[in-house]
């Protein structure tokens, strides 16, 4: 068959899905005012503003939209524009023509977070820009400040009337992680936000969920008939979800000293990943149906008996070591960290989901800083074959099948299975079938923050935390944190590990399942 007729045949039998190009693009949501609180900070410069610029470049941010940076620092529009220009240059995405278009709708508003007068001035300026645009006045308020001021800002947005929605226009609040530092503080923050905003207006971010492969997990599981029948305790022996970083605490010691790895990574990203692997099929791919199923997973997590916690949890802290050939200091030697800090920078937790599907299957969840590689990976290890007919004739061990989902830096799904080594003898070897999403997505995929902002503008809450999910996760983790932090033997249970290694000795057996 020649290539012309084969591609024609391919088209004739092609599924009715959109083409790649059509699917990647979508359309730009209606124009809006994007108001970023904490706009003088790191997140705005490094992630948020570059994401907005890329959305504009890709036709996914209406060019009439206004971006307003808000913070306490004294700046005027021009100074803020210079700063954002620099941010784009640093991210290597600056384009002169597009910048001209972008800069005219970019403003700065100095505001002290507890000053009603300054919110009234902000409301007035927003009203003017919106009148010039001639639309209903959609507003997106993005809290990129330290969490301590989330409540104050929401309260004042409510009092100044900025949180009010109309028939024509939305008012949405985007809240960065962390959402509380334990169950009581998460509930208190939620109560404050709800005084001004209804649940459908609140978007609690977990940018991990916006990663392409994480979303692909749902499609992989529920869009294919072959995997779901074996996705249970009968065929799966264990699951490992890991997210490792090479970097240390960097400039975020002030935050990290109070958070540690359990609050920084487990309460949000790792729990989200676990839920996608473990959920039951929702009836519809619709935000609340998916979030209902996730909450059921969190509620089914087995609480730990205090005396057995140490069997299921390994905590570590990085000591001096070598990363990429460079000597790096211990966590306790980092700027802003106490010399006697007992903050864990590594954790490996074995969790159990107590339901029919997952009874007895260990979920090993691991995350840490200053590890050997930057990697986010999920490994599903299947059970051994029930009976090996090759046991007397074959040489070599028969490894169990593994499904490996690479979330970052690679974006791929691989299935490992047994194959015969070619030749006269019967010998096994594991071989891999791999699908690499990144090759296909290059140039069309959205980065995590682009996806987050786009979904907020579209009003799609699928990838955002709902309050019951936040509470269920904190409900599971808070007793663990209390046990780790309250008892006097915290230091004794904190395993040091050399920077550049794969973490404490006690977790290496699980780490090996990753490779
Ligand atoms: P920054 O520490 O850079 O703070 C942002 C801005 O908030 C500062 O520029 C400052 O602006 C203002 N601010 C700082 N301290 C206070 C304070 N005590 N009270 C009131 N305002 C203050 O934060 P980031 O930009 O790094 O992060 C913002 C939020 O996003 C945080 O909640 C963080 O946890 C979250 N986040 C950040 C990530 C990152 O990569 N940076 C990643 C994921 C989440 P001014 O003084 O001008 O008011």
Q: Ions, cofactors, ligands: which are bound?
A: NADPH dihydro-nicotinamide-adenine-dinucleotide phosphate
Under the CATH scheme, which class of the largest domain? Answer: Alpha Beta
How far apart are the termini?
A: 41 Å
- CATH architecture classification of the largest domain: 2-Layer Sandwich
Full CATH superfamily name of the largest domain: Dihydrodipicolinate Reductase, domain 2
- Radius of gyration, in angstroms, nearest whole number: 25 Å
List the helices and strands and how they pair.
Layout: H1 3-12, H2 20-25, E1 33-37, H3 42-57, E2 66-71, H4 77-90, H5 96-103, E3 106-110, H6 116-133, E4 139-143, H7 150-159, E5 171-175, H8 183-196, E6 202-204, H9 212-222, E7 236-244, H10 253-278, H11 287-300, H12 309-312, E8 313-319, E9 321-323, E10 326-328, E11 346-352, E12 362-368, E13 375-382, E14 402-408, E15 412-420, E16 428-436, H13 437-441, H14 448-458, H15 467-486, E17 494-498, H16 508-512
Parallel strand pairs: 1-2, 1-4, 2-3, 4-5, 5-6, 7-12, 8-17
Antiparallel strand pairs: 7-13, 8-11, 9-10, 11-12, 13-14, 14-15, 15-16
Helix pairs in contact: 3-4, 3-14, 7-8, 8-15, 10-11, 10-15, 11-15
The structure holds NADPH dihydro-nicotinamide-adenine-dinucleotide phosphate.
The site of NADPH dihydro-nicotinamide-adenine-dinucleotide phosphate has 18 residues, from α3.
